Amino acid sequence: MNVTPLSDAPTIPKATTYQGAFLPAKKKSAAFLPLPVKWPIKNNTPTYRHDMSINVVADIAPNLHVRTPSLAFYLYPVQQLPSRLIEAAVDQISTLPGIGRRTALRLALSLLRRDNERVKSFAEAIVAMSEGVTPCDVCHNLTEQITCSICSTPLRNKNVICVVEDIRDLLAIENVGSFRGVYHVLGGIISPMDGVGPSDLNIEALISRLAEINTKEVETSDDKESDSEIEIIFALPATMEGDTTSFYLYKKLASFEVKITTLARGVAVGEALQHADEATLARSMDNRTLYEC
């Protein structure tokens, strides 16, 4: 194994934490895979272990490049912070999605510049949200009550249920302001690659909900009017995982007398045809509608 220092940087202090990354040796543009390691300093021999960690036991430059015939290992030091309290705060902030350690450090230092009352208010708001917000018992929307405001209002059509992946999709549809039905939040979509199966989603709750609606319809009236027809709208992502989830739900709901629809797919408003992909154009042609002035 060849060990090539990338610079003549100072020697590594003991117990310095480093961050490493493996990537194919011939694909330097490939994505890095983070690998935290500890570096004891003993002698001048770098070794490679089967657990994909490298024992650098040498006074060598902090920037190290270890190359094998199939893998290249790139090493760079993790910034040492002056306080363990700041380090703990940065570690927690960096667990948020889309937040790296550099951004987490900037946010932590911003909190330090605030007065104690504002920091306490910030922390109390986070804790209150974590303790006070719970899923709705009916649709799994987020709420502070047992039932959310959408499910509890009598102005909504309870026979029209829009199935969405998560709360962000619900909020997006609500912001349009034209949908007057109710929702059902699955909490995700079927994705075997990510280890998400049907049992991990709120599918059984949807089936129980439909069974309850059917029972109420039978008890109230034997002849159903046209406006009391039960409709399920699939508002799931236009991806392979979203289509798989829609197909699974379609099969599970086949025993119910419900109307199953999905969101229209086609060319977006304001988009030029030359910028649309082939699948979108094909779906737009198949689902073309009558022109109305």
Task: Describe the protein.
This protein is of the alpha/beta class and 293 residues long. The protein contains eight helices and 13 strands. Strands 1-6-7-2-3 form a five-stranded antiparallel sheet, with no helix packed on it.
List its salient traits.
single chain; 293 residues; alpha/beta; Helicase, Ruva Protein, domain 3; Dna Topoisomerase Vi A Subunit, Chain: A, domain 2; 3 domains; 5-stranded antiparallel beta sheet; 8 helices; 20% strand
Strand % is 15-25%
Task: Please tell me the CATH architecture of the largest domain by its name.
Answer: 3-Layer(aba) Sandwich
Q: How helical, in percent, are the residues?
A: 25-40%
User: What is the number of beta strands?
Assistant: 13
Please, how many helices? 8
CATH topology of the largest domain, by name, is Dna Topoisomerase Vi A Subunit, Chain: A, domain 2
Order of SSEs: EEEEEEEHHHEEHEHEHEHEH
Number of domains: 3
| Shape label | globular
Main sheet: strands, sense, barrel: 5 strands, antiparallel
User: What's the CATH class label of the largest domain?
Assistant: Alpha Beta
Uncertain parts: 1-76
